[in-house]
Design a protein that fits this description.
The chain is an alpha/beta fold. It has helices spanning 17-52, 81-94, 111-125, 146-157, 172-184, 198-207, 224-239, 255-264, and strands at residues 5-11, 69-73, 99-104, 133-136, 161-166, 188-191, 212-217, 244-247.
Length: 265
């Protein structure tokens, strides 16, 4: 049996080639998750059939197969997302898939999630002549396991105070999402683009007598902004040696994130 869905993981895109490679690595980790599940399912499937059939009647063609998984950038790429999606749809159709699920690897409900990606999907649908259906899945930041994943990262870092470092947005909806997330994590929030800034929040915690401050960047992959955050933290640490500033890493292409996506799809 061929699984009903193929998956296209959509990330923002970047001029930094490491972002593309990290996105591809995450896609491969997710593929590996499906492969592991496929092996177990095949074993169970064969054992079940052996209970009712002759061994020669059970073939590999009866067993489930691995879904098609690829990644594509929304911006800063030679092809537009709708062009990438059309090509992916053709490959999926040729392999027998009936449905594509687009998984937005975005951490907040901004304009890319609300408008840009749906528009690209609409453009692609007009070009594929109903060969497959295309569905838009929830964005990554909405996954039910995200709070648990971030809580675990904070616990591993430890600290008297938690600062969740986010990008920031002009959208009240996005900032409300950030505030709600920080509340669930028992953290205070700092904005890369907006106020309160990281420096303001760190200074406030120092003034309150905190000696160890944990900072977790709520970003998907390492890149220009996360490097700038690291430089700012280093400068603050040099200026205030009496406190310990502990900087975490962005989500990245990790087993934990792949497992989170796997459980949701």
């Amino acid at each position: 049996m061929i699984p009903s869905s193929a998956y296209l993981l959509v990330f923002h895109g970047s001029r930094d080639p490491r972002t593309q490679s990290t996105a591809s690595e995450l896609g491969q980790l997710l593929t590996t998750k499906f492969q592991s599940k496929n092996i177990l399912t095949q074993q169970n499937y064969i054992e079940l059939n052996l209970s009712f059939s002759q061994p020669e009647m059970v073939t590999a063609f009866d067993s489930p197969k691995i879904p098609l998984i690829e990644v594509a950038p929304l911006e800063l790429a030679p092809l537009s997302l709708n062009e990438s999606l059309v090509k992916f749809a053709l490959r999926a159709h040729q392999k027998g898939f009936k449905r594509i699920k687009v998984l937005p690897l975005f951490l907040a409900p901004g304009i890319h999630v609300q408008e840009d990606i749906p528009l690209e999907i609409t453009l692609a649908i007009k070009q594929i002549n109903n060969q497959v259906t295309i569905e838009l899945s929830p964005y990554l930041g909405k996954y039910s396991g995200m709070v648990q994943l971030l809580s675990r990262k904070f616990r591993q870092l430890s600290g008297e105070t938690r600062i969740l470092m986010v990008h920031g947005s002009r959208s009240p909806q996005v900032n409300h999402y950030y505030q709600s997330l920080a509340t669930q994590l028992n953290a205070i929030i700092a904005y890369w683009s907006g106020s309160p800034s990281l420096a303001q929040q760190v200074m406030a915690q120092i003034a309150a007598g905190r000696k160890k401050i944990t900072i977790l960047p709520y970003f998907l992959f390492p890149g220009r902004i996360t490097r700038a955050i690291a430089l700012e933290v280093a400068a603050l640490q040099a200026k205030h040696p009496q406190v310990e500033l502990v900087l975490g890493q962005p989500l990245g292409a990790t087993e934990a994130l792949a497992e989170l996506i796997f459980k949701e799809v």
